[in-house]
Amino acid sequence: MPRDHLIASTIAKKQQLQSKIWQKLAREIKTAVKVGGSNIDANPRLKAAIDKGLQNNLSRESIEKNINGSNKDPNEMTSLEYECYGPNGIQIIVTALTDNTNRTASNLRGYLSKLHGEIAKANSVKIFFDNLGVIVLYKNIGQSKDNIEEIILNNNVNGYIDTNESNEIFTVNTESNDNFYKIKELLLNKGYSLIEAAIKLVAQNKVTKLDDENKARLERFIDACDQDEDIQTVVTNYEETCNC
Question: Nearest CA to 236 among 71, 117, 60?
């Protein structure tokens, strides 16, 4: 059995990661309000930030506090997007919110150096990604891909693209606009259980093979980005496949 101090260490690490996620979500909510105002219906960025916050167990009280306190926050945040290449044709897009662009760029270059990667020219990577609404649902008994498509078509909701099905989940892809929210609410109202829903970049072509050394480097790179308070998201075209 694990010793008590090892259990405590694992719990502490999980709590630190959750705290970091909440800090990043709070930063995004405040920035969204500063850029587009506090009206959720008129500010898609704020709507997406609140949605993501709720999915990550950020309390409604904290969300309201960050919306109302955004104008009192003296920090001016700059939104950044870096397109990068890693080993074996790995394509990476990193987004950041920072009050010190030099610090963020320096830190990212350090993480990429350990990955054996580099920052690429603008639009040389992003053209290989699509901006989609992605809804991931639990696959319960009696539910099928055909059921999902029938529900959406019968309710005349526009913006549906396709549904991918695996042994345990459905992944529903939509246009990255208000239709995404309509389809999500429709499926939840029909009894589907949500795992994740977000508007995000999705790679057009996946890399499914990486040797163990480069896979470990990529995992360490993503971990470093997760721990960096300036970096908001990391998207890659790598997708690990199961050989089971």
Answer: 117
C-alpha–C-alpha distance, residues 163 and 176, integer Å = 15
Q: Give dist(CA 32, CA 38) in Å, integer.
A: 8
Q: Say whether 147 sits in a helix, a strand or coil.
A: helix
Contact 164, 170 (CB under 8 A): yes
> pLDDT tens across 42-78, in order?
998 999 999 999 999 999 999 999 898 777 666 788 9
Per-residue pLDDT reduced to its tens digit, 161-170: 999 998 889 9
Half-sphere exposure of 211 (CA within 13 A, CB side): 4
Contacts 24+ apart (CB under 8 A), 222-228: 224/111, 224/114, 225/94, 225/108, 225/111, 226/17, 226/20, 227/20, 228/104, 228/107, 228/108, 228/111
pTM, two decimal places? 0.84
Please state whether beta strands 129-138 and 194-203 pair in parallel, antiparallel, or not at all (unpaired). Answer: antiparallel
* 5-51: pLDDT as tens digits: 333 334 345 556 678 888 999 999 999 998 889 899 899 899 999 99
